[in-house]
Amino acid sequence: MIPQSFITDLLNRVDIVDVVGRYVQLKKGGANYMGLCPFHNEKSPSFTVSPTKQFYHCFGCGAHGTAIGFLIEYSGMGFVDAVKDLSQSVGMIVPEADDRIPPAQRAAQQAQSLAMTDALNQACDFYRAQLRTAPAAVAYLKGRGLTGEVAARFGMGYAPSGWDSLRSVFNDYDALALVESGLVIDKVDEDGGNKKRYDRFRERIMFPIRNSKGQVIGFGGRVMDGGEPKYLNSPETPLFQKGLELYGLFEARQAIRDAGYVLVTEGYMDVVALAQLGFPQAVATLGTACTSTHVQKLLRQTDNVIFSFDGDKAGRRAARRALEACLPQVSDSKTIKFLFLPQEHDPDSYVREFGADAFAREIDEAIPLSQFLLREVTTEHDLDTPEGRAHVQFDAKPLLQAMAPSALRLQIVRGLANLTASTPAEIEGLFELSKPVSVARKAPPRQGRPEPVGLELQITRMLISHPTLSLTLDATATKAFESFGGEQAERLCQLVAQAQALGENATFAALSQGLKEGSSEFDRLISEIASEPESDIDQDRVWLTSAVRQIKMDVLKQELNQLFSSGLTPDQVSARYREITAQQDLLSREAANETPAKFA
Length: 600
Hints:
InterPro entries: DNA_primase_core_N_sf, DNA_primase_DnaB-bd, DNA_primase_DnaG, DNA_primase_Znf_CHC2, DnaG_bac, DNAG_N, DnaG_primase, TOPRIM_DnaG_bac. It catalyses: ssDNA + n NTP = ssDNA/pppN(pN)n-1 hybrid + (n-1) diphosphate. Monomer. Interacts with DnaB. It holds the Pfam family DnaB_bind. This protein has 25 helices and 16 strands. The protein is of the alpha+beta class. It has five domains: 86 residues, Alpha-Beta Complex (DNA Primase, Chain A); 127 residues, DNA primase DNAg catalytic core, N-terminal domain; 117 residues, 3-Layer(aba) Sandwich (Dna Topoisomerase Vi A Subunit, Chain: A, domain 2); 52 residues, Pheromone ER-1 (Up-down Bundle), CATH 1.20.50; 139 residues. α11 crosses α12, α15 packs parallel to α17 and α24 runs antiparallel to α25. It is globular, with a radius of gyration of 31 Å. The two termini are 40 Å apart.
């Protein structure tokens, strides 16, 4: 687990304007920066980035957060990856609780990673330059209907025929980073003597593969004739794992948001061709079966994922593997569909023959995951016989077990029960499904804590806006907050403790990030504060001091009113009376020396 102190330090070092500005065109507008929101379609800018709050907020769709939150929402990164990305940009090393790697070794790993990234970028520039001077490669791409514009958008290039063409790019062709990044291959004689180094990619159209940050992490190379293999990918490296990456996702992110769905295809050329033909929301797996991580990445980008497969046997097998990868990620708020084209077509050829409108109709009519699952388990069995129905249930069991309890799983269970002459409860019992839905008794919903109001609300807003003000509150202040009663007092005291734990470097962004990780209880309030002009911390400090003093005075007054009926002995009453009046006098003298604050 990454320490909160590190998150605070990181958010204090990065500039959210720079982070967001890498992806959104921002213009200065008063104290903030404005731009078109990347999270919903709009023509007039309603997206603001505050350099003082280090926070973004959209007045149109309500999206808001820190630099970490922006990377998570925009790039589809996980929390840890987003933190690591920002840390790398400011030269910080993320501490890990179970990290036993010596600092020197970790520094060497980071140096290796940077060297590999640099090598891949140089190679990408080289391949792109070679494409401009390769008539055969240009003719091939034009023959596939591609323009120079779309080739440039995807950074496509050409690897020439020489065995060591990259020697002209790298002064040190023997550098270890070239092998580690997969650009070259070292071949050693059988006796372990002479070593020969040569380029991995030769005479191939080159497709750079980018990660969520837009960095080149590998390549896919396609032959232009009938050579084998048809596609050659970079090997697995510390930067590139095929089961984790999707080709074209970096380029397609905004198009996916605009279209409201992502189309998953089977190859590089499908992605590039579809982008030119009006479907830039397409991505592809990298010569490997779709994995659960792929699906998780896609569902971070959109609520609607559509897989496109050829209608042949290979396409059906790939679709089945994709189905199995999807099941652990299925939820009631997400939609996953499967599109099967005629056997003689891939997406590229289908659009060129029948047009974009016809392909869009195919997308609209794609088969929902639930329907595809039931079709998969029933196609080869006779539902008119007990044996056939038993086979169907046998095939369906591991698929349903892979799903989390949900309304969609219940719908599939009901469909399967109807097909196999069973009841939903029988299916769930027979399959030993976790948390059966059809027979479960729902517990009454747990009531959340009441929304803060009045003085509690004002103090809460103040502490979230300026967390360092919490350092002015001592134990007597938090004790006084108990007068709010029950859960309200507990919430306010927890907020004070969380803010104080951040120390003197606490900021609105850092506290908001920590609160967001814990629960969504303060999310609406954070959104409101983010959308407002920043308040003056010195005025707020005076207000908070006065407010806490008034709470203490009210608590003392209430205790004084109840003192003589408290059951204490006369001596105890007398002693406590003197203590209370002394504290009241002290608070009154403090108030006399300060400008009174207005509060509810």
